Amino acid sequence: MSSPMNLPTDSSISQPVTTVSNDCAQLLADNQWLREQLITLRDCALETEALFKRHQDWEIELLTISTLDQLLECLTTAMCARFTLDEVRLLLLDGDHGIRGLLTRLNKTPDEFISVMFYAAVTELPAPLTQLTTPIVGLMDTDTHRVLFNTAPDLASTAVLPLWREQRLLGFLCFGSHDPMRYSPDLGTHFLQRLAAICAVCLENITNRTRLEIGGLTDPLTGLHNRRALKQRLHDELARSQRLGQPLSCCFVDLDFFKQINDSYGHATGDMVLMELAECLQFSLRACDFAVRFGGDELVVLLPATANNDACLLAERVRHSIVNHTFVLSDGLELSITVSIGVGTIMPSAYPKEKLTDERGDDLLRCADAALYEAKRAGRNRVACQSL
Ligand SMILES: Nc1nc2c(ncn2[C@@H]2O[C@H](COP(=O)(O)OP(=O)(O)OP(=O)(O)O)[C@@H](O)[C@H]2O)c(=O)[nH]1
Q1: CA 258 to ligand 1: nearest atom
Q2: Ligand 1 binding pocket, CB closer than 6 Å
Q3: pTM of the shown model
Q4: What region holds the GGDEF domain (predicted)?
Q5: Does the pLDDT value for residue 12 go beyond 60?
Q6: 106 — phi, psi (to 5°)?
Q7: Phi, psi (rounded to 5 degrees) for 120
Q8: What torsion, rounded to 10 degrees, do the Cα atoms 373, 378, 379, 385 define?
Q9: How far apart are alpha carbons 327 and 132 in whole angstroms?
Q10: Atom 11 in ligand 1: residue holding the nearest Cα
Q11: How far is the CA of 324 from the centre of ligand 1 (A)?
Q12: What is the predicted ipTM?
């Protein structure tokens, strides 16, 4: 900032009146100029303060997010709105499909997040991205721009933030604007660098947390839900069934003579049969059904809003699909197996206004287990049904 001010010298003090009035005018002009500079500085400071506050609020919001899907939403759609951007893209390096797998377990499809792109490795990306350690502003080269903003080629300025966490590159957060000055090449990147660091921490924390939560509710052999997950879900489904006045059904699916498979082919082969059975079962179910490995060779399926006769039809379908499935073992040996299925159903009229306890869930499981016992006793490879 250069000043137009002429500072008075000793000789100018004794000058004639016209000179003094000229000096006065000069002083007024200088004063005016200084005032304008002050106002500009103040506006600049206020703008920086507002920007800082906006970033700080945003960071607090990010740090309080507790689910992976919320975080992805927040880093893309919400970020776009909050910072009045024209485009936001989040590119995630997800070589082992870990993040996509977690989303699927949360009943979300990765395609739902249209601004999130998944790549196996950074080597699949254009060279300028592979070497990025700090945010870069301005426009990227055409190839890189196309990869990052494929459907938005008309952006006038962009910022690309690499998300590093302890020397591991998690991905890139990319902002685009139609305003060429928004991310001009001479823009300081301190704010962006800080934002990138916070986003990387949040991403890593939430991914790890989700992995732990899901791990604690999943059967490691079959990938189905475990008993702990069933307990939680049973409570929720009973409450929903009571609220909406809908029946809730449950199937116990048990392999017939599984011990013989273990004894004849070994435990490892038995494990493979269990894994394939779980896959086969899931294939026959609806998206709203909840499949669980209850223990050993016994699987349980919760069927929300399903009456007893419909649950029996579904159980027959499951039984058929397993009977018709050929289990191919590791040494090429082919095996056919059968299952017995017990179906139990609870009607909301059985517990109209009572406060729900875990006992109601236990009643439903006992009912389906009793039906399974009936199916086994009647000769196996069949479905038996009971209602509460
Ligand atoms: N391979 C393998 N076997 C298991 C696992 N958990 C339990 N088992 C075995 O599953 C078998 C279950 O046997 P049983 O309860 O007698 O039932 P079954 O032989 O299927 O006979 P029915 O149910 O009466 O038709 C036992 O041999 C258990 O050792 C597991 O994780 N892997």
Answers
A1: 20
A2: 221, 254-259, 262, 267, 270-271, 274, 296-297, 376, 380
A3: 0.65
A4: 246-388
A5: no
A6: -90, 15
A7: -75, -40
A8: -60
A9: 49
A10: 259
A11: 21
A12: 0.97
